[in-house]
Amino acid sequence: MGVDLDSLRLLLAVDAFGSIGAAARDLGITQPAASSRLRAMEARHGLNLVARSARGSVLSEGGQAGVGQPEVERGNSP
To answer: For residue 43, with 0-12 CB atoms within 10 Å meaning exposed, 13-18 middle and 19 or more buried, which class applies?
Structure first.
C-alpha cells in the first residue's frame, strides 16, 4: 500500500493518540481535514484504515498493515 508521508504520519498519530481529533491537533491540522484525508486514503486503497467510535479511533487491520509495512511513495520511484 503506497501512502504519502503526511498520511503515514496521520495514521501513526491516530494509533498513538487513539483519536482523530487529537492526532489532527498534534499534526497542526483540523479534525475535518484529518477525517477527509483518512476517507480519501480509504477510498484510494479500498480499505477501512480506521475503526471510528464515539470513544475514539483505532487502526483497523488494514491500517495496522499500512503502518507496519509502509511502502512510501517517492515521486517516480518504483
So the answer is: exposed
Contact 63, 3 (CB under 8 A): no
**Measured distance CA(26)–CA(14) in Å, rounded:** 10
Rounded to 5°, angle at Cα 41 from 71 and 73: 30
Q: What pairing do the DSSP bridges indicate for beta strands 50-53 and 56-59? A: antiparallel
pLDDT digits (tens, 9 = 90+) for 2-35: 568 898 899 999 999 999 999 999 999 999 999 9
pTM of the complete model beyond 0.85: no
Q: Which three cell numbers stand for residue 1?
A: 500500500
